[in-house]
Specification:
Number of helices of chain A: 8
Distance between the termini of chain A: 33 Å
Order of helices and strands of chain B: HHHHHHHHH
Distance between the termini of chain B: 21 Å
Structural class of chain B: mainly alpha
Structural class of chain A: mainly alpha
Oligomer: heterodimer
Keywords (chain A): DNA-binding, Sigma factor, Transcription, Transcription regulation
CATH class of the largest domain in chain A: Mainly Alpha
Organism (chain A): Candidatus Defluviicoccus seviourii
Strand content of chain A: under 5%
Family (chain A): Belongs to the sigma-70 factor family. ECF subfamily.
Strand order of the largest sheet of chain A: 1-2-3
GO molecular function (chain A): DNA binding; sigma factor activity
Number of domains of chain A: 2
Radius of gyration of chain B: 20 Å
CATH topology of the largest domain in chain A: Rna Polymerase Sigma Factor, Chain: A
Shape of chain A: globular
Pfam families (chain A): Sigma70_r2, Sigma70_r4_2
Shape of chain B: elongated
Number of helices of chain B: 9
């Protein structure tokens, strides 16, 4: 996966323009005069679910545009993944928004943070895959073929796909997407305890399946 | 993968009213209202240094004293501001001038002692009491800081923890200067200021575990 950006080296995320609009360093332009967003968030802080729903639907396209522009080369699913993570973060820290201040810089600071996390995770995964591939190649070079390695990948996918839905969802969110329990609970509607139990059972099943094969 | 509209619907349905985070300035005042009485109590219990009246008229005492207090105030503000998304970055530089004045005034006194007394005249002894004293006196401001800062967004947890610990330790230093008779510049710089710097740096390293929510 090619990730063509570095947020850490991007201190000036926002650049004010003469016409009062702002643009990110990636070139996305957006207005920072969305008074209705600020009002909806203020209402959401008071518990107005309709205003909150309107706000989240209104900001999602902006989050999507910024993420797509920043994560050049990432798939649409990855972009949507980031959008959902930002929405979860907005939800978790919505009490930090001060309606006396503009809304968009608050929102963009959260998205920048989540994008930074996502990019770091993607690089780490890419490194792990590279290291794993090297080690495997050294160990199995003579014995294994590409077809066999591809079969292993498919076998893991098939095993995960064969798990009960709760276990599959818990593994995907907690292990693959590295969400916190709180975030995964908010996304799935499951309790944190239920997620822990589902993860434990899913891992146990996978270990049993592949442990036997390995032994 | 759950689609974004579903995530939005779940988040909107689970939106409870939230207690809005006060501005960083208000939180600094609240923090001082908890920390200053402790410093005052420490002064009453330990007894103010007998020459305090004279010392308060000496620039060599007053300048680092006031600079340390200003560092505590601005570092507390930076700690709170760093956990609010969208806060302008320049707020985080506010502790730098008083901090530089504090270190600079202590360094200048060391240099003047060196010029006046030479190497043999510089007093340097082991005084390990400063670190635990500053840690103990700063404990209540530090605990108050942790409890207050935990409600923010963990955008820069290490920096937030560093500023928070710096604020608490600088306030403890202010209290220590009111009761402790140590005036040798090098001793103050190494043991008292050194304790502040050590506590702030160590706390910064453990910043990730500080926050209640994840952003």
């Amino acid at each position: 996966m090619a990730i063509g950006c570095s947020l850490a080296a991007d201190p000036a995320w926002l650049v004010r323009r003469d016409n009062g609009a702002r643009r990110s360093m990636s070139g996305i332009e957006f207005r920072d005069d969305h008074p209705e967003w600020s009002q909806w968030m203020a209402a959401a802080q008071e518990g107005d679910t309709d205003a909150y729903r309107r706000l989240l639907h209104a900001i999602a396209p902006l989050l999507r545009r910024v993420a797509a522009r920043r994560l050049q080369g990432a798939s649409a699913a990855d972009v949507e993944d980031v959008v959902q993570e930002v929405l979860l973060s907005v939800h978790a820290v919505r009490h930090t928004y001060d309606p006396a201040r503009p809304f968009v810089p608050w929102l963009m600071a959260i998205e920048r943070h989540r994008l930074g996390d996502w990019i770091r995770r993607a690089r780490r995964r890419a490194n792990e895959i590279a290291v794993d591939s090297l080690e495997e190649a050294a160990a199995d070079h003579a014995a294994r073929t590409d077809d066999e390695q591809a079969f292993d990948g498919r076998a893991v996918q098939a095993a995960v796909a064969g798990l009960p839905k709760a276990q599959r969802t818990a593994l995907e969110l907690l292990k693959l997407k590295e969400m916190s329990l709180k975030e995964a609970a908010a996304q799935t509607g499951m309790t944190e305890t239920a997620l822990k139990v589902a993860t434990h059972r899913g891992m146990k099943t996978l270990r049993r399946l592949f442990g036997k094969d390995a032994g | 993968m759950v689609d974004t509209d579903t995530v939005i619907e779940r988040l909107a349905r689970s939106a409870q009213p939230v207690r809005r985070l006060p501005s960083p300035g208000r939180r600094v005042l609240r923090w001082l209202s908890m920390g200053l009485p402790v410093i005052g109590l420490f002064g009453i219990i330990m007894g103010a240094r007998p020459d305090l009246g004279t010392k308060l008229s000496e620039p060599a005492f007053v300048v680092p004293f006031v600079a340390a207090f200003a560092t505590a105030v601005f570092a507390a503000h930076a700690a709170f501001a760093s956990s609010v998304p969208g806060t302008p970055r320049w707020w985080l530089w506010l502790p730098a001038p008083p901090f530089a004045l504090w270190v600079g005034s202590l360094g200048r006194q060391c240099w003047q002692d060196w010029l006046r007394l030479g190497a043999d005249g510089i007093v340097f002894e082991l005084d390990f009491a400063c670190l635990p004293t500053i840690a103990i006196v700063g404990a209540v401001p530090a605990i108050a800081m942790v409890m207050m800062v935990r409600r923010g967004a963990p955008l820069m947890p290490r920096l937030t923890a560093f500023f928070g610990a710096l604020a608490a330790a600088a306030l403890a230093y202010v209290g220590l200067r009111l009761v402790h008779l140590e005036d040798a510049a090098l001793m103050v710089l190494v043991w008292q200021f050194g304790a502040v710097a050590l506590l702030a740096t160590v706390s910064g390293a453990f910043g990730r575990g500080l926050f209640a929510s994840r952003c």
